[in-house]
Design goal:
Structural class: alpha/beta
Oligomer: single chain
Helix content: 25-40%
Radius of gyration: 21 Å
Bound molecules: NADP nicotinamide-adenine-dinucleotide phosphate
Distance between the termini: 21 Å
Number of helices: 13
Strand content: 25-35%
Order of helices and strands: EHEEHEHEEEHHEHEHEHEHEHEHHEHE
Length: 338
């Protein structure tokens, strides 16, 4: 935000004081309120979630290395309170919007960003759902419906199924008619995931995953898998796929690499990475508008809704980031801003 014009007033904002452990290096400071330039809007932030990618970025383990002094927070909900010159910004003024801030800065009282990065949302969606409107819901729909093309009756293996995103996959399966074979690392999650509509739930480390998968899926084998863990867990998932199976790896929660022999790849198994940021850049605007509409509909239906978790203020950022990574935490941690 250096060299950005300001109005002389100050706001609270969470910034990165160094690359390192989030609870130590994320600081809530006062900084000038930025003014929107041409084609930009200023959003008064209401709330913003803490996602795993925010914490990976803070530790310097994400796709891009952040600069010290950077303000964090990539999605959230707020109200457009000022527009710079330009028609789109004027149209957005006064609207409650999902804030898709590719440059970061939503963990602040005000965020300035391009007007085409805010999405007006239906009035009946609660703030806590709009706060997580985009990253997980869009990833679920793009991976399952567009990239893999999972159809009614197909099985998909869903690793780390107890995550916010994993639960969305389970509920989408129930709605769209595909079957979910879910893998978790704690037995206590089984009743909850079954209640959401999980067809099968396996606990990591309870015997051979390949054998369990073969027994459950039966003839033809497993065609689809999605994995945000990598390491031994993701490697086991890859090995449990059929010869022509297709796996998307979309996270690195274990921090460990996959260990994969090239032979199955040569023979036709597919392993592919998925990153929403890159995927969205390749799509035309009309497709994204349809996606936003579908996300609103499926949040309203209770399919792509985010389980709410503990709430913290910007000043409590150190406690908030610890809560966001607590094993067995309940729901998505939210920073409530105004
Ligand atoms: N590639 C993309 O474009 C994209 C987009 C969106 C999300 N993602 C990824 O999707 C994943 C889930 O995101 P989220 O927001 O749904 O997360 P979340 O709600 O914060 O949940 C994290 C989950 O991961 C589990 N977990 C953490 N470390 C693990 C490990 N080493 N082994 C197995 N499970 C582990 C936790 O299990 P417990 O419940 O047992 O603690 C928890 O259920 C993240 O990796 C995120 O980066 C990627």
């Amino acid at each position: 935000m250096n060299n950005v014009p300001t109005n002389g007033d100050v706001m609270k904002s969470v910034v990165l004081s160094a690359i390192g452990e989030p609870s130590e290096v994320l600081k809530c400071i006062d900084r000038p309120i930025p003014e929107p330039g041409r084609g930009q809007v200023r959003v008064k932030m209401i709330a913003s979630p803490i996602n795993p990618s925010d914490l990976m970025l803070t530790r310097g383990r994400y796709m891009v290395k952040p600069e010290v002094g950077t303000s964090l927070g990539y999605e959230g909900v707020g109200i457009v309170e000022k527009a710079g010159p330009g028609l789109l910004g004027k149209y957005m003024a006064g609207k409650r919007v999902a804030v898709l801030n590719a440059a970061g800065g939503n963990w602040s009282e005000y965020a300035v960003l391009p007007a085409n990065r805010v999405v007006p949302v239906p009035k009946d969606l609660p703030d806590e759902q709009v706060a997580s409107f985009f990253v997980n819901p869009a990833t679920v729909l793009c991976m399952v419906r567009e990239v893999l093309g999972v159809r009614r009756g197909d099985w998909i293996l869903n690793n780390a199924a107890g995550s916010s995103l994993g639960k969305m996959i389970i509920k989408l399966g129930k709605r769209d008619g595909f079957k979910t074979l879910n893998v978790v690392r704690r037995e206590s999650l089984i009743p909850e995931l079954k209640a959401l509509g999980a067809d099968e739930v396996l606990v990591e480390g309870n015997g051979s995953l390949s054998e369990s998968v073969a027994r459950i899926v039966g003839q033809g084998g497993l065609k689809y898998a999605i994995d945000p863990v990598a390491g031994q867990s993701g490697t086991d998932v890859f090995e449990s796929l059929s010869h022509e199976g297709h796996m998307l790896v979309y996270g690195t929660l274990s921090g460990q690499p996959l260990t994969i022999s090239p032979r199955p790849l040569i023979a036709g198994k597919r392993l592919e990475g998925f990153y929403l940021g890159h995927y969205m850049q390749k799509r035309p605007l009309w497709k994204n508008l349809l996606l936003f509409k579908e996300i609103s509909r499926l949040i309203r239906e209770g399919v792509l809704d985010t389980p709410p978790g503990p709430r913290f203020t910007l000043d409590q950022i150190a406690q908030a980031v610890v809560a966001a990574e607590q094993p067995g935490k309940d729901g998505k941690v939210l920073l409530t801003i105004s």
